[in-house]
Amino acid sequence: MTQPTAFCADQIFDGNSMHEQAALLVRDEQVVEILPQSSVPSHFRQWQSTGDMIVPGFVDLQVNGGGGVLFNDEPTVAGIETICSAHARFGTTALLPTLITDSANVRDRALAAGRDASAAKVAGYLGLHLEGPHLSVARKGAHVSDFIRPMDAEDLSALVAGRDQIGCGLITVAPENVSAEQVRALSKAGWNVSLGHSNCKAADAFAYFAAGASMVTHLFNAMSQLTNREPGLVGAALATDPVYCGLIADGIHVDIATMKVALRAKRDPGQIFFVTDAMSPTGTDVTEFILGGRTIYRRDGRLTLADGTLAGADIDMMSMVRHAVNVLDLPLEIALRMASTYPADAIGVPTKGRLGDGCDADFLMLNKDLSLQSTWIAGQRRYETEPQGA
Ligand SMILES: [Zn+2]
Q1: Structure confidence at residue 386 (pLDDT)
Q2: Which of 167, 267, 335, 346 is deepest in the core (most CB within 10 A)?
Q3: Residues 190-200: tens digit of each pLDDT
Q4: In 3-state terms, what secondary structure has residue 288?
C-alpha cells in the first residue's frame, strides 16, 4: 500500500492505552501516529475498520508448525511461508518457527532457511527458535531422547556463525547439557537464551540468568517445580525480576489457579507472555500427525503421544487471548499485551507488539466478542474472515 492510510475504529489499543474514536495513521509499512478521527490529515485515505477495535498483531515465540507443516519436517522458506500464513488466520503477525530437538544437519538446514526467509522478507517471519537438542533427558517431554546431547565446541561455533542474518534468534537450553560459559558466548553472539526442558536446581538457574539467559520456555511445563526448600526453575524464574516466561495458556498445560498464582508473582520488568507451542495441525482438520517418527493424536483440544505425554498445544493465539479474558479473568489490555507487547519485549524488538510512532504496521481488526476480522502485516491485509452468510 503506497498511499498513506488512516485506519479508523471505535477503539484502538496501542499496546499501552486504549484510544476511543481514533485513527491509526500508516505510511510505508509503519505507524505514523494515532489521532482522533476528527484530526486525520486530508492526504490520508480513510479506511473504516470492519471490526470494533484495532489492536497490535500477535507475536508468537514458539511455533512448531501450522497449515499441515511441521518445521522439523520442512525447514525451508516454503515451509516457513505456510506456517506464517496459517497463523495469520489467528492474528499472529510475527512468529519464530521453532525447531525441536533434531540432528545437527536439520539444525543447519533450519538456520539456512531462516536466513533465506529473512532475506525474502517472508510476511510474519520474525526469526528462529531452536528448542533443543541441548536439553535434559529427564525433562524431555515429547522430544526424541536419541538426539538430546551436550553442546560441544562444534555446536557452539555453528550456532555463533549461524546467528547472522536469521532475524531474531532464540535458543532453549538446559543447564544439564550447556555450560554457563556457553550461555555467555551465545548471548554475546546475539542469541536470546531461554532455559527449559530442565530439571536444574534454582541455584543453577540463578547462575545461568547471571550468565545471560533471559527467559524460560513454557513456564511450569518440562521443568523442575517450585517446592518448599527447592524453588526449582519455576521458582528461580518467578523470583528473578528481569526474566521473561513463555506460558502455554490453553488450560491444559498449566492449571488455571497455577497460572493465576504465577501472574501475581511475576514482577516487572520481566513478564509472562503467551506462546502457542502450536504444531502442524493448526488451521487444519487433521486428527493425527507424525513427530520425530511417532504418532501424535489430536483429541479434545490436546496433542499427545500414545502414552498421554503432551506434544505441543492445539490452540491458536486468538483463542488463547479469548481464553485469558474469559477463563483467567484477565483485563483485555493485559491479555493483548501478553500476546503481543510482552513477547516482543522478551525478544528485544521494540517495533513489534505495539502501535506507537515508527512501529511496524502489524495490526488486527477485532470484534467486541474477540473474534478476528482481519490481519494486517506491514500495512498489507494478509487475512480477512469470510463475510457472514457467504
Ligand atoms: Zn517444549
Answers
A1: 81
A2: 346
A3: 999 999 999 99
A4: strand
Q: Does the annotation list 9 as a binding residue?
A: no
Q: How far apart are CA 155 and CA 161, in angstroms?
A: 10
Which residue's entry shows cell 470484534? 367
In 3-state terms, the chain is what percent helix, strand and coil (to 5)? 25, 30, 45
Q: What does the pLDDT read at residue 302?
A: 95
Residue type, 131: E
Q: Can 369 be counted among the known catalytic residues?
A: no
Q: 273 is written with which cell numbers?
A: 507472555
Q: What pLDDT does residue 191 have?
A: 98
> Domains of the chain (ranges plus CATH)?
5-55+354-384 (2.30.40.10), 58-347 (3.20.20.140)
Q: Please enumerate in sequence order all residues whose Cβ is within 8 A of that of 369, keeping only pairs 6 or more positions apart, or say none.
A: none
The answer to whether the beta carbons of residues 51 and 365 sit under 8 Å apart is yes
Amino acid in the structure at residue 163 = R
Please report the pLDDT score of residue 241 as a whole number: 97
Beta-bridge partners for 30: 27, 360
pTM: 0.97
Percent of the chain surpassing pLDDT 70: 98
Identify the residue whose cell numbers are 482522533. Answer: 36
What's the CA gap between 379 and 33, in Å, rounded?
A: 13
pLDDT at 170 over 90: yes
CA of 296 to the centre of ligand 1 (A): 15
Do the Cβ atoms of 309 and 291 come closer than 8 Å?
Answer: no
Residue 134, annotated as binding a ligand: no
Q: Select from 294, 45, 349, 24 the least CA-distant residue to 169.
A: 349
Q: What's the rounded Cα separation, in Å, for the pair 57 and 352? A: 8
- Of the listed 60, 277, 345, 360, which one is catalytic? 277
338-377: b (≥16 Cβ within 10 Å) or e: bbbbbbbbbbebeebbbbeeebbbbbbbbeeebebbbbbb
pLDDT tens, 64-81?
A: 999 999 999 999 999 999
Give me the amino acid identity at 345.
D
Instruction: For residue 381, say whether it is annotated as part of any ligand binding site.
Output: no
Cα 54 to middle of ligand 1, angstroms: 32
Q: Tens digit of pLDDT for each residue in 333-380?
A: 999 999 999 999 999 999 999 999 999 999 999 999 999 999 999 999
The reply, when asked if residue 221 is annotated as ligand binding, is yes
Give the mean model confidence (pLDDT) for residues 85-107. 97
